[in-house]
Every structure is written in C-alpha cells, then in structure tokens.
Amino acid sequence: MPPAQPRSGPGGRDYLYSTVTVQSFGTGPTAYTLVMPVGAAQRRLPVVYFLHGYGTLEATPYISWLEHLARKGTIVIYPAYQVLATTRVREYTPNAVQAIRDALVQLESGGGARPDVRRVAAIGHSLGGAVAANLAAIAGSSGIPVPKALMTINPSNQSSNGLVVMPMEDLSQVPAGTLQQSLYSDADSRVSNALARRIFVETTSIPLADKDYIIINSDRHGSTALNADHFAALAGRASRWSLFEPDALDFYGYWRLADALLASAFTNTMRDIALGGGSLAQRDMGIWSDGTPVRRLTVTDLPY
Predict the structure, then answer these.
(1) C-alpha to C-alpha distance for 250 and 112, rounded to whole angstroms
(2) The domain 20-300 is classified under which CATH number: 3.40.190.10, 3.30.920.30, 3.40.50.1820, 3.30.230.10?
(3) pLDDT digits over 191-217, tens only?
(4) What share of the chain is helix, strand, coil (3-state, %, to 5)?
C-alpha cells in the first residue's frame, strides 16, 4: 500500500483547526468561494489565491486540499474567473483580480478570520496555473496583495486544439523576493511542459536559489498505483470524486510542497523542503508498506 498522510509536518494532519467553512459569494465570472477555519474569528491569517483548472468553478474537485490549507491556518480565496465558454480568455486574469478584491473586502467585513495581506501566496493548476502566474506578475499594479509564494501545477494557457490562447503577462515582472515552485507531472498526456518551463525561465527577477522546477513522478510499485497525470492535483472526496481521492502524491507531493513553500515565504522555515534544490528532504515521497521508497521527486534548475 502507498503511504498514508503523515502525522505531522508539511502535508501532515497536525491541524491547528478541526473544521472549516465553505462559502460562495457573487455571481458570474467574478464570483468566488472562501474556505476558512472555524474558530479563528478576528485573527489575521495568511491568504492563498487558489486558481482552478478550466471549468472547475465549484471548489468540490479540490476540496480536500482546500480544507487542508484552511485547517493548517490559511484563508483560501477560490475565484471563479470564468463561466465556461461565455467568458473570453483575455478576461480570466482581470476577473480573478476583481474576485480577489471583493473577497478581501468581504473578509474584512465578516465575522471570521481576517486576511494578513503581508502573507499571501498563489497556487494554480492547469489553466489556473497560468492565471496564478499572471496574478503574481500584475498584483502590485492591480491593487491586490502581491504573492510572496507562487506554485504552478501543470500550467496551460491553451485550449486542447491550441486555437484559443490566454494572454500571459510579462513574467519578468514577478518581483524578486517571490519564492516559486514550477510543477509538472510525468504522466500528463493532456498538456505539455512548455508553459511550466516558460514560467520557470521567464520569471527572471527571481534568482535560481528562490525557485525550483519539480517533476512529480508516477509509481506503480504497489497494487494501488500512484499516477501523476494531469488531474493528480485534484483532491475531492471519495463519496463524490472517487477518481481524485487524495493519495501519497498529494500528501507528500502537492500538499507537502505547498505547505513548505508557504512556511518558507512567511516564516523562513522548511526551505530545505520547499526549495531544497534537489535535497533528499525535498524529494522524499514516503515509503510503500513493504518498505520500498516511493519514487522521489525530480528537481532541477535546467528544465529542458
């Protein structure tokens, strides 16, 4: 069997809060969902802009990860940014900006946790990875808090036939001081690694010491295979999204790396895991039940 969620540490189940709230606000492409811990009223907590893949306007397909982030003590803003085919691609990033602005106003006026705008991160998957990178580039000029951490996962800004392309911002404008992870999955047959590489290379203001290009590797050693395909970062619940129930790729890969990236950006801890440059601590993916190590992450500064 693959390893279960670790008891503690990044990706682990040592949660600060036991329950969360999930609330949606607004309508159309500037709607958003807030996922927040219960019991954190009036506390200033870090914020994650979480940008979904194409069409997943509701948070359900990612809900286990979003709840994990919230239970660790983070406010998650989940912008809709599109209404499928009725929203033009050039509007995706501006819609996300507006949703984030509205969400921050709502958070300040509500009775729950309050946003700490000095501790902000952006995480994006697939099309959302492209939007997250755009937000990191234009946040300062768009009137939203600038992310101190950026994680993009299997990003793409094109339709499957390549005919529709979402504009990318000037990625050199992602400011120095941002900590970055550019992730790609080895079994992704849906999108190429072209944009993952581009985001890593074109964020020229970020020194190599502050970013890593990371490949999540599949492992079929055990009877329950760990398949790092395009959808591996989705983490729903077994009752409704059984294909995307969280597994070791989440616990030791996406969740662990994100937790460590946030800790590194906000408290200057866990850098050996977040940006270890290929250290064993960073690449470790746990152990199969027979004692065999799960296939480790590949980490490089030369994603060619």
Answers:
(1) 28
(2) 3.40.50.1820
(3) 999 999 999 999 999 999 999 999 999
(4) 30, 20, 45
